């Protein structure tokens, strides 16, 4: 019985050791195996071709980005097998490979429109084929059918009679309107004059009241604008005072010897971090020109800031009069997570840096 228990414990211990070893192997792979990145591209006559990729653990996980004339595509691979593709580049390629799909849909649409047009033509022809019966034919028909022709004639004559009656009514109305106003009573004319004067007086009173209201509103607006300007000036003054206080506090912190030590440590570790992240191989050969000469100068300055590191591998010429983008580039680099932790860990461990971070976040 004891031997069986010991055998079971032995198997459990072996399994646990295997799991711990596998976990340790994964941790070491994540910390020590670098993440490699590379990119290459060329530009000539407004045609841009560029490729970039990131891989880890002998291309176990791989991400590729491709750019061709403002069309981009991203591919994600696992063990060399593409698991996801997305982007306008792949969509355009699929449309080029399967052009019949669009044509078939267009054909079906055109066939449907043709069928509808034929149906409409047949309907119109069926309507136009119905012959019209003339008056002579109606007269030759029996008496019961001639009644219909008489009714139609009466219907034709009715509009003319209506127009004549309307003209008579309009003439009678115009004559009534053109009667002289002398026939009216003089009392009604005097009352109308008095009513007109009273209406004018009321209108003048209303206009005066509206003018006074407008003046009062204008004065209130001016006062509100003055108060708003005063408040804006006070806010600006407060902001300036706060900025001065922050600047003075920052200068005090810089002059503090403990903070100076923290700044020196952060500066050195930041330089190491940049050197580790920057590409190990870089070559640029280009001719660049922007629409603005100042922007062209700034771009050239950014390129040649890397000259002390890569020296003759960077050759960029500027065109200050024309807009040009021609050339090619290549770069390769790697990033180790373990190295990043080794660079960042001394900064986090330092007490002066932690104190400085606390002071900054409190403010």
TrEMBL record:
Keyword Protein transport: no
Top-level taxon of the source organism: Bacteria
Keywords from the named record: Membrane, Transmembrane, Transmembrane helix
Name of protein: DUF2953 domain-containing protein
UniProt key word Amino-acid biosynthesis: no
Spans traversing the lipid bilayer: 7-33
Composition-biased stretches (Basic and acidic residues): 106-135, 147-156, 166-235
Region described as Disordered: 90-242
Organism: Hominifimenecus microfluidus
